[in-house]
Amino acid sequence: MTRITPLLERNEEFARTYTPTALGLPTAKAIIVTCLDHRVDPAIVLGLQLGEAPVIRNAGGRITQAVIDDIAFLAFLTGQLSGGQGELDTLFEVAVVHHTQCGTGFLADPGFRHQTAEATGLSEAALEASAVTDPEITVRADVERLLTSPLLSPKVSVSGHVYDIATGRVTTVLDARYP
Questions:
Q1: Calpha distance 35→162 (Å, rounded)
Q2: What SS3 state is found at 32?
């Protein structure tokens, strides 16, 4: 038995009642970008069901070039799947969700950041840029980064939110805006 065995057993339970669906548009018309922290599961925190919204997760829920590339692809794919018939010529909203007590906050400490760089091969500058010490500040910066990207479709809106680990509440910091 391995550590994944209980999870595979849970999957067996899931598969017993699973009904596959065809490739199509996510029903919530939203993409969630959030942290990979195990305390921040958007399916639970936001009550998402299978098929409602793509979720992109990384350390800190930061808007990196890879995230921008994924969103650009999803906008293209959504446009193709909808045949260009989006509601009011819109595709979806990207909700950027950072959270309190983020482990990337440790990267603000120069000593920890240096050790991390040595252990991972990542640059100290990149690690420092990914730190979430104040999620309201970083979510604003990431929304702005996404809104100013030339790869973001003008049919995609972006909003910013903070999930409070202590209360379980998600608070809107920036309402949805278009580029």
A1: 11
A2: strand
Residues 70-107 as b or e (16 or more Cβ within 10 Å = b): ebbebbeebeeeeeeebeeebbbbbbbbbbbebebbeb
For the whole model, what pTM was predicted? 0.94
Could you give the C-alpha distances from 170 to 42, 60, 96, 115, 160, in angstroms and in order? 10, 15, 11, 33, 10
Query: What are the φ/ψ torsions at residue 170 (nearest 5 degrees)?
Result: -105, 125
- What does the pLDDT read at residue 86? 53
Take residue 42 and report the two structure tokens written for it: 């958007």
Please report the pLDDT score of residue 89 as a whole number: 72
The answer to whether residues 71 and 31 touch, using CB atoms and an 8 Å cutoff, is yes
Length of the chain: 179
CB 31 within 8 A of CB 94: yes
State how far the Cα of 140 lies from the Cα of 51, in Å rounded to an integer: 28
In the structure, what pLDDT confidence band is assigned to residue 87 with cuts at 50, 70 and 90?
low
At residue 84, the pLDDT reads 61
Task: Classify residue 83 as left (phi > 0), alpha (psi -120 to 50) or beta.
Answer: left
Q: Name the helix (H) or strand (E) containing 16.
A: helix 5-17
Residue 149, token pair as written in the block:
């990207």
Tally of CA atoms within 13 A in the half-sphere of 157 that contains its CB? 14
